[in-house]
Design brief:
heterodimer; A: alpha/beta; eight-stranded mixed sheet; B: alpha/beta; Rossmann fold
Chain lengths: 347, 318
């Protein structure tokens, strides 16, 4: 687990628009270790998708990487031109999109789409491609692959389509798989199957996964480590247990306690207001306007990362030794206590 | 029916509702049974959650109840009066005032060329309130209740954020002071932090205005949190109806069990152990034995054949 496969350092991405510069990603740093699943959580507009698009070099035309490095295999992807990505995109780093229907070509047979991915990745000669494609379809759990091979995307259900998209992503035997909300468009029962599949593939082929989602239940299922993003910044990161059982950042508290779980009875903790407009990111801690625990310094100065444990860091002034001691909202502490009791019951 | 359900007053009574959609003609005719023989009651002041996967017919059920679709069969009774089938103009006016709908997509469901005042007051105007000042007062009143201000009334939908637009949708539904609100996935298009705001708003309004709500959603945690009773739909059939806690603690139908076992929970240690139960509709043998609604526990109905009911009862006894 100690082997870093991808390092993102101080990444800043902005979009130019008529109104001005939208600062979508502001000084984001994270490491991805071999064989782990790193989950990036946040609301829409928090910059989680933009970060991974920068890694793949598929940012839209009006976006620029202002500064920062994306280190993969000794090369800095942030400096890459489009043609340099040819050897990496879809070969070493693959992407699974949110909507499996728009990710597939509607007028091309499923089999041909997988074969195309195999041949273009250069790993498979044309003659063997069909056999390997059928293999991939079996691997992602498509029943009767010989028949399905000659069908079109519209003949597949949503879950089956997502399996095909995953098969295509795996065709080149990548080292990193980026999943951008892969189950958001799916039903809960299908979602459970796809998550099982992704977990199983990770176990079997020591793949590293970046998993983007806003569903904390899904995060708890797949993630080894979690990074929480807000307004273009990572505000807290740590191992999954640390984030769920010992969160430190007020935004993580708010995120966790604004979703009901199956035992929730009390009033939900709702975050007032809306996420900030990234044309004019607020000075200091971007969350301070919505944060009931905000300190005066939050308005002036963005908090640095404070160490909670070797693997757990949180950017909040509350962890400064001079800050007043604050407890998380009761709905959250009660829920964590309930989860701990349940964990002991199972044992 | 147990004594408890008999004493409570049913505001909405759906009996054997069927909505079929057909396409093609002659030999190629294809019929989709979107809602197939669905019966349930909603009592005054309660929130009834309807859950199921996409395509299971939950939205069609809601839309058929509010007469957006014509039912193929079955009847709907509202406040004791039959509201399905042909109705006179007065009856329809009466009904539209008392039953309102909140839609999923706050962008698509608001006319971009109408101001918030026009959108919210349209229901009042249609219902014969001619005096603009009178309408405006009610509009301001309801905007205040849903957490918007007077100034918002002159603005257009594009000036609002997603959460605010959904508040407008709620205001539009509630301005006529309805007794039943059908909320079709009202929070699923919203961001997590905004979802909590809207759910809390619903809870507040439910208490203040004594609303009865049919809450249609696919997010089971939200439905569980928000509903008093829950109905589970699958392939056009209503499989199980029970009190929210009862359904989650003692699911009877194998599909309900499968659905509940698939919910991911924000608890990593639990997630690692969670075992998913698969559901195979082929386990039922309904060619031989016709299924019916059975009250398997007090206030807990399940759609099953006689032999299955006996088996479920044995399972519950354990």
């Amino acid at each position: 687990m100690s082997d870093k496969i991808l390092q993102v350092k101080n990444l800043c991405v902005s979009f130019s628009s008529y109104a001005g510069k939208v600062q979508a990603v502001r000084d984001v740093s994270f490491d991805l270790y071999r064989g782990e699943t790193l989950s990036i959580v946040g609301e829409s507009g928090s910059g989680k998708s933009v970060t991974t698009k920068a890694v793949l070099g598929i940012l839209s035309g009006n976006a620029t990487i202002e500064s920062g490095e994306i280190l993969y295999n000794g090369a800095d992807l942030a400096k890459f031109q489009d043609k340099d990505f040819a050897d990496i995109r879809g070969k070493k780093i693959s992407l699974v999109f949110q909507d499996p229907l728009s990710a597939l070509n509607p007028i091309m047979k499923i089999g041909k789409q997988i074969v195309e991915a195999l041949v273009l990745s250069g790993s498979t000669p044309k003659g063997e491609a069909k056999e390997k494609a059928l293999d991939l379809m079996r691997r992602v759990g498509i029943p009767q692959p010989e028949i399905r091979f000659n069908q079109y995307p519209f003949q597949f259900s949503g879950g089956m389509r997502q399996r095909i998209v995953i098969a295509i992503a795996l065709a080149s035997d990548p080292e990193i798989l980026i999943c951008d909300e892969p189950t958001t468009a799916l039903d809960v029962t299908i979602q459970a199957q796809i998550l099982e599949l992704i977990n199983e593939i990770k176990e079997r082929s020591s793949l590293s996964i970046i998993f983007i989602t806003h569903d904390l239940g899904v995060v708890a299922n797949v993630a080894d480590r979690v990074a929480v993003m807000y307004a273009g910044r990572i505000v807290e990161y740590g191992r999954s247990e640390e984030i769920f059982y010992n969160p430190k950042n007020p935004y993580t508290w708010a995120l966790l306690s604004s979703m009901p779980d199956l035992d929730t009875k009390e009033q939900l903790f709702s975050i007032p207001g809306t996420p900030p407009n990234m044309l004019y990111p607020p000075p200091g801690d971007a969350f301070h306007e919505r944060n009931q625990y905000a300190l005066k310094i939050d308005q002036r100065e963005a908090p640095p990362f404070f160490r909670v444990s070797d693997t757990h860091y949180a950017a909040t002034w509350l962890l400064d030794p001079r800050a007043p001691k604050v407890d998380p909202p009761p709905i959250l502490t009660e829920r964590i206590a309930r989860m701990k009791r349940r964990a002991e019951d199972v044992r | 029916m147990s004594a408890d359900t008999n004493t409570r007053e049913a505001l909405l009574d759906v009996r054997g509702l069927k909505t079929y959609f057909s396409s093609g003609h002659g030999g190629k005719k294809h019929v989709v049974r979107a809602v197939d023989d669905v019966s349930f009651q909603i009592f005054k002041g309660e929130t009834f959650g309807l859950v199921g996967e996409s395509g299971c017919g939950k939205t069609t059920t809601g839309r058929t109840i509010i007469r957006l679709y014509n039912p193929t069969g079955g009847e709907v009774y509202f406040d004791g009066k039959k509201i399905s089938g042909k109705l006179g103009r007065n009856e329809i006016n009466q009904l539209t005032r008392n039953m309102q709908m909140i839609f999923q997509d706050p962008v698509a469901s608001l006319n971009p060329r109408m101001t918030i005042e026009e959108i919210v007051s349209e229901g009042l105007r249609v219902n014969g309130m001619r005096d603009r000042a009178q309408r405006l007062e009610l509009v301001y009143n309801i905007l205040d209740k849903v957490g918007l201000t007077k100034d918002h009334a002159t603005r257009y939908p594009h000036e609002f954020s997603g959460g605010q637009r959904q508040r407008v949708g709620i205001a539009r539904a509630l301005v006529t002071n309805p007794s039943l609100v059908i909320a079709d996935e009202p929070v699923s298009a919203l961001d997590v932090s905004i979802q909590a705001q809207v759910i809390n708003l619903f809870n507040k309004l439910k208490e203040e205005m004594g609303l009865t709500i049919l809450f249609i959603a696919h997010n089971l945690s939200v439905v569980k949190y928000f509903s008093d009773r829950i109905g589970v739909m699958y392939m056009g059939k209503l499989l199980e109806v029970a009190d929210a806690d009862d359904l989650y603690l003692h699911p009877v139908h194998p599909y309900t069990k499968s659905l509940l076992s698939a919910i991911p929970q924000p608890d990593p240690l639990f997630e690692r152990k969670r075992a998913r139960v698969a559901y195979d509709p082929a386990i039922h043998h309904y060619e031989e034995e016709r299924p019916q609604y059975h009250e398997i526990l007090p206030n807990h109905q399940v759609y099953a054949s006689q032999s299955e009911v006996e088996r479920y009862k044995r399972e519950l006894g354990q």
